[in-house]
Amino acid sequence: MLNEDVTSWGRREDTILRYSIDRNEYRIRIESNLGYLASFARGGPIEPLNYLTPTHSPFKWDFPILDFKVLNNRQVPLFLTEVVLDIAESLIDPAPLLTIKKDTQQRNAGNLVLINEGGCDLTDLTISFHLLSGQIAALTNSEPPFQHSLTLPVFEDHAEVDVTQAFREEGADIDGLMLLGNGRWDKDAFVVPKADGLEERMTEVEVNERWKKCLGRFSNEVGTLAGEISLAAADSADRRHSVKFHAPVYLANRNRMSITKPPTFMYDTNFETEKTGYQRRVQISQELQPGETDRFTIKVAVAKSSFHRFRATLIDITGLALESLPIEIHCFVPRSRRKNVESKVSPRATG
After folding, report:
1. What distance in Å separates the CA atoms of residue 267 and residue 283, rounded to the nearest whole number?
2. Is residue 67 domain-resident?
3. Taking the CA of residue 337 as centre, how many other CA atoms within 13 Å lie in the half-sphere pointing to its CB?
């Protein structure tokens, strides 16, 4: 397996996807390792992730790259022309995974934004939490009984969960903040719509005083939700999963913003996500003189998080076949990038 360079990522270590290999005399097992996914599976805690990244997701991820290193120990040249991948089985990975989208540009006042990054739809999502004043960096009180609770019957890809009712119950005047947010300056006066449809004119001092009064104890225009999210996969609703979380929610929108030989060539192919007994044939052109080594890679693209069992066979121009051990690989694809990936991953003529 070849892991790409991540030195330029500059974000949390647990958002980097790496592949590890476990090899014995009988098989090769390749596992995808993502710290955030492991933390989620353990029950958290999780916190918001930044989606403004070069990958357009919170994860530094890529498709697995199979790394082939070949030594020609024969007395004649070896001309490799093809790699045949015999896939015994491909299965979707149904493990649930969700993220909380960080409000990096402060555009989602009053909303907790959830993203489904797993391979399945989710159902019966329950968000239970305490609401703390200010932006809390570390998880504090996340134990029941919780002060507030919200439910989502079905969660497919993306949800903006309105949590303003919790702020109302904690003393914030959400309606008053909304009216102030819809106001406008008219010369030296700030014109604010009233609940009865009329308007009132206010000075800058009066606006600031009204704003502070509406915020109540959330004087910094932000509160932190700390609690637990309980959910079930749509295809196995009897099995529930819970994860601890904490996330800030704003009350105002401020921006509506050892060294190995390098590969001599890189090839690519794609696998199905639900199929058995098929092939992918990758046309290659690699020449090895007697005693010479060579290295090339094949990137394996998949449309969804999935598991695959296969063998790789290298074919020489004379028909000589060099077969690998059985290979098992777990692939991870963020659900938020699935549509983009699916548009690019399609069966090839060589398949």
Report:
1. 8
2. yes
3. 23
Residue 55 lies in a domain: no
Number of domains in the chain: 3
Task: Determine the distance from the C-alpha atom of residue 249 to the mean position of all C-alpha atoms in its chain, rounded to a whole number.
Answer: 20
Residue 50 is assigned to a structural domain of this protein:
no
* CA atoms of 181 and 279, how far apart (whole Å): 59
Q: Which domain does 183 fall in, by range?
A: 174-215
Least confident window among 26-35, 113-122, 224-233, 291-300: 291-300
Q: Is the pLDDT of residue 2 over 60?
A: yes
Token pair, residue 335, equals 């659900």
Query: Quick one: pLDDT at residue 349?
Result: 37
Do 110 and 227 fall into the same domain? yes
Distance CA 164, CA 177 (A): 11
CB contact burial 75-90 (16+ within 10 A = b; e otherwise) = eeebebebbbbbbeeb
> What single string gives the DSSP state of each residue in 174-225?
HHHHHHHHT-EEETTEEEEE-TTS-EEEE-HHHHHHHHHHHHTT-TTSEEEE
Q: Same structural domain for residues 268 and 290?
A: yes
Distance, first Cα to last Cα, the chain: 22
In angstroms, what CA-CA distances link 15 with 3, 6, 43, 330? 14, 11, 16, 17
- pTM, two decimals, is 0.79
Q: Which amino acid is at 318?
A: T
Same domain, residue pair 268 and 239: no
